[in-house]
Fold this protein.
Amino acid sequence: MNSSSITPGVVLKVRFVTSNKKAYQDYVDYVDRDNAKKEQGVHEKLFTLYQDYLS
């Protein structure tokens, strides 16, 4: 098989953002909003554990 005929099945694009950037704070604000926590029925303790995991 010729390597030029191989097509990837998945393309992964990642951008790393450090915690001192505005984009990081925007994400934290987004996941920490009240209706995001209530709509999923997430228990407060589990959400806190997830936030601890992210930091």
